[in-house]
Amino acid sequence: MRLGARWLAAAGMWLALLAAAPTWASESRYALLIGAHRGNADEPMLRYASDDAERLRDVLVSLGEFLPENVLVLTDPSADRVRTALARMNARIREEVSRDRSSVLLVFYSGHADAESLHLGGTLLPWEELRNLTSGSAAAARLLVVDACRSGQVTRVKGTRVAAPFALPPDVESRGLPEGFAILSSSSAGENSQESDALQGSFFTHHLVAALRGVADLGGDGLVSLAEAYQYASDRTVASTVATLAGVQHPTYLYDLKGRSELVLTRPGRVRGLASVRLSEPGQYFFRKEGREGTVVLEVNISREPRTARLMPGRYFVQRRLPDRLYEAPVSAGGEQSLDLARASWSVVELDQLVRKGGGGRPTYAVSVWGGGATSVLTGFPFTPAASVQASLDTAALSLDAQVELARAVLTSPQFERRLTAVSLRAGARKVFDLGPFSLSGGVRLGATSFDQRFSGREAPRRWQLSPHLDTLVRADVRPVRGFFLGVEAGLRASYVRVSSVNDASARTPVTPVIALGGGMRW
Q: Could you tell me which residues come within 8 angstroms of residue 5 by beta carbon, excluding any fewer than 6 positions away?
């Protein structure tokens, strides 16, 4: 039967596929893992199908006690090659059964498919045939995992036939499944299964491998069951594909559980030589190899309950993502070392910095107040003090801002007093570079100033003019407290000014220095 509701999935899959009598040590575990980049001639190449298969192989061998000689990875095989490999594996399983040894068979496929068949480099393997070859095995438990559909760009969709994407056949519901047989699919009917350049793999397999590394172990017994692995991979796949162009992807499964107890897929808590990493604080964690730009090897989402992941010893760059900021820390995980990330030396990337890195879900905003001034472009005024209010919008590409400024100056002589009022409106863009708690930026602002001159002590008419100008500026910001910032701006202003005299009128374009200090708040 097909089950989509979470409560039914957890209730059903929590029971599993192995008879209760055989112990872990008496089992023979076999896996056939297929990564097919090439489908039919009209289908684009996938990038990470074989990587998906290799990652699954590594976790099954290192944590699931699948012997290396019992795990076969096929990269871009033909349909006949898959048939032959699965037939030979089934023959070996029959020999195990003849010696009263229980067996487990896992068959995994990552590649192109449609509703009728898998697409293997121009050859076709009918879905019904693959199902029968797997379910007909003599193994006590048989698990078929299919990560297939269509393909495109940064998030590729596996397969190209929109009219008939791969889905678990509905007729199986009416006919039923053999006992001890389960099928997991990376998507439900009418949906696309996707692979990601950021993860360098498919969403579903990426999260399935993470689950098998221990993060799905809710019971804390060091074991990851099929039920736990499926539930975690399903939840994370849905969350990861909410914002993709292809749409949300809902993994599904079919199973028959009669007379079976729980199937344990991996034992990460019982394997020696691995580093144990404790994730106790909420957030979305990304483990990258070596540095900030390294490949994501593990992604874990923590809501309330802590999780423990088991990783190969080595150096990792860990990022912990929260809605309004990002924490980053390099960590070193030694063999059998217990590492609690709550004690890591985190550096904080605020939301505006996160947006500029391309990792924020929305732009950020800022309001600030500035004080400073500029050398006046009008004769007789050496410096004009000014105050301004500025509103900014941070995007991944640029910081955009708008500014309103008021400047006042008074020039006094024995004969008369001259008062100047200047009101300016400006808008501009800056490119920002983040250096830890500091930010440096440079850009331009285009605006106009309304100059109003009035005289007292002599008979003279009021003078008014509008002067357009262009600012080029550099700016430095520091964040003393989260959400607040202090900054300094300096630059040059090129203005267009009309000059009138008794006998002549002309225009000039003076270039004057400007400087300002300010502070504000971001959210």
A: none
DSSP output for 344-365: S--EEEEHHHHHHTT--SS-EE
What are the structure tokens assigned to 416, written together? 């008369």
Tens digits of residue pLDDT in 7-23: 334 334 433 333 333 34
For the whole model, what pTM was predicted? 0.63
Half-sphere exposure of 366 toward its Cβ, with a 13 Å CA cutoff? 30
Tell me 377's DSSP state: S
What backbone torsions phi and psi does residue 510 show, to the nearest 5 degrees? -70, 150
Query: 487 near 475, Cβ under 8 Å?
Result: yes
Q: Measured between alpha carbons, how far is 217 from 266 in angstroms, rounded to an integer? A: 10
CA distance 71 to 211: 19
What is the residue-averaged pLDDT of the chain? 81
Provide the CA 164 distance to its chain's centre, in angstroms.
Answer: 29
Residue 26 has pLDDT above 80, yes or no: no
Q: Dump pLDDT digits (tens) for 44-83.
A: 788 888 988 999 999 999 899 899 999 999 999 999 999 9
Of the listed ranges 30-34, 368-372, 495-499, the one predicted with least confidence: 495-499
Q: Which two tokens stand for residue 152?
A: 């495109």
Query: Which is higher by pLDDT, 360 or 385?
Result: 385
Instruction: Locate 301 and state its tokens.
Output: 């989402």
Let me know: does 119 contact 113? Beta carbons within 8 Å.
yes
**At residue 68, what is the residue type?**
P
Contact 352, 471 (CB under 8 A): no
Burial letters for 132-156: b for 16+ Cβ neighbours within 10 Å, e otherwise?
ebbbebbbbbbbbbbbbbbbbeebb
CB 400 within 8 A of CB 432: no
> What pLDDT, in 10s, does the model give residues 458-504?
667 788 889 999 999 999 999 888 789 999 999 999 999 887 655 66
* Tokens representing residue 43 in the block: 């289908």
Helix residue ranges per DSSP H, 192-336: 203-210, 226-240
Beta bridge partners of 500: 505
Q: How far is CA 216 from the centre of its chain?
A: 20
Which residues partner with 457 through β-bridges? none
Lowest mean pLDDT among 242-256, 293-307, 377-391: 242-256
What count of other Cβ atoms lies within 10 Å of the Cβ of residue 53?
A: 28
For residues 35 and 49, is the Cβ–Cβ distance under 8 A? yes
User: Collapsing DSSP states into helix, strand and coil, what is residue 226?
Assistant: helix
Is the separation of the CB atoms in 185 and 252 below 8 Å? yes
Looking at residue 502, what is its pLDDT? Answer: 52
Q: Which residue matches tokens 């106009």?
A: 448
Looking at residue 232, what DSSP letter applies? H
Q: Quote the CA–CA distance of 400 and 398 in Å, as a whole number.
A: 6
